Amino acid sequence: MRDILVVYYSRTGITxxxxxxxxxxxxxxxxEITEKKDRSGAMGYIGAGKDAVLKRDAELVSCPxxxxxxxxxxxxxxxGFNPPSAVRTWLKRTTFSGCKVCAFATMDGSGADxxxxxxxxxxxxxxxxxxxxxxxxxxxxxxxxxxxxFARQVPR
Length: 156
Ligand SMILES: Cc1cc2nc3c(=O)[nH]c(=O)nc-3n(C[C@H](O)[C@H](O)[C@H](O)COP(=O)(O)O)c2cc1C
Hints:
The protein has 156 residues and is of the alpha/beta class. The protein has five helices and seven strands.
């Protein structure tokens, strides 16, 4: 088991791509939060936004364990300036004592800072490092630079 775990939730794969890239840079394990609700299509999008803004809990299918990790990096998309419901539920179910927590959020426009502040609020302590990412593209050298800088800020 590695000291660092990257935990992420992703609806369309963008946050997953970033999580995998970061895990490689950090020599970390990676684990996905998944939920029962189908978030695909237009109806899935609308329901996702509502659930996130109303801070509804999600029914999780995969709820990663962090016991034994020194550092956890949490990745998520911004949903209506909020973490997705599945991330909120996972944060509430997880005990972070003795573990340093960092987080990143992917977005199409704005809201990552507010989303990351809400993550800190649910955890009840400040995040050790944060990274807002606007429309990250896998082949963009600027993304690699941002991820490397973030990786340097992640405590070991
Ligand atoms: C329900 C919903 C709400 C969203 N709200 C925002 C928003 O408030 N601000 C923003 O910049 N992007 C918003 N987005 C776009 C996503 O944050 C963005 O496309 C993200 O990178 C998708 O990541 P994923 O592929 O890992 O799901 C929203 C997407 C969804 C599905």
